[in-house]
Amino acid sequence: MVEFESITYGIHDGLATIELARPDKLNAMSSQMFNELGEAAERAAADPGIRAVLVKGQGRSFSAGIDINLLGQLAGTRGARFRTFARTAQRPYLLLAQMEKPTIAAVHGHAFGSGFQLALACDLRIAAEDATFAMLEVRFGLIPDLGGGHRLARLIGPARAKEIVWTGREIVAKEAERIGLVNRIVPAITLDEQAEAYARELVSAPPISLALSKSLLNRAMEIPLETSLEREAQAQTACVDSEDHREAIQAHLDKRAPRFTGR
Length: 263
Fold this sequence. Notes:
The protein is of the alpha/beta class. It has helices spanning about 30-45, 70-75, 80-100, 115-120, 150-155, 160-165, 175-180, 190-205, 205-220, 225-240, 245-255; strands at about 5-10, 15-20, 50-55, 105, 110, 125-130, 130-135, 170, 185. Strands 1-2-3-4-6-9 form a six-stranded mixed β-sheet, sandwiched between helices. It has a three-stranded mixed β-sheet with strand order 5-7-8. α1 (about 30-45) links the parallel β2 and β3 (about 50-55). α1 (about 30-45) packs parallel to α3 (about 80-100) and α4 crosses α5.
């Protein structure tokens, strides 16, 4: 089993937790961290025993963005060499966004640049009252290239997304909630507890329903209503034929909590 150095990875009762672990660097993203995030996300996606994934950061911040030393090393990199790095860096972001399991980011302190984009790659975001978000790439003559611009425009609309990307301004937690960047704000002292409780709600939900609805919702803005209805009908057929659907009905009749198995 791979041992990680820049992150920690743990599993408990169906919940995988990926924690950024460079607190002395405000969890700035190094090449090693990009690689290890990809390995951890792939492991979580492939493990049938995992029902949800929680992403968080150690220390004072979620992530202050790409490590400035790595940024310096990449300056002037061209062609195939940079594309190889880009694919490695993009890998965990794509996996978190597209895996069948729900993914949740617990954000505190700074979520800047690649850290902001990591939070955006997750399906849901729960933020501490002290959280601040910013796309700082413009300050270095760069663009968000980890899917953050794509996700941002879908969440809050192209005009707001352009303003945030073009200005690099900081967004505090209350504004982030108001414009739809985060799902919930909680006191910083209770973030870990409430984020895990939030994730546990999804761990206890029927996995087939979550996986199929995630796929449908991810593509909802790309396809016409008629196509969406056809895909919903196909997905519902799979749900109706599942053991989890029958278990949900029986549990309701028995007045007990359902026990979903993902079958």
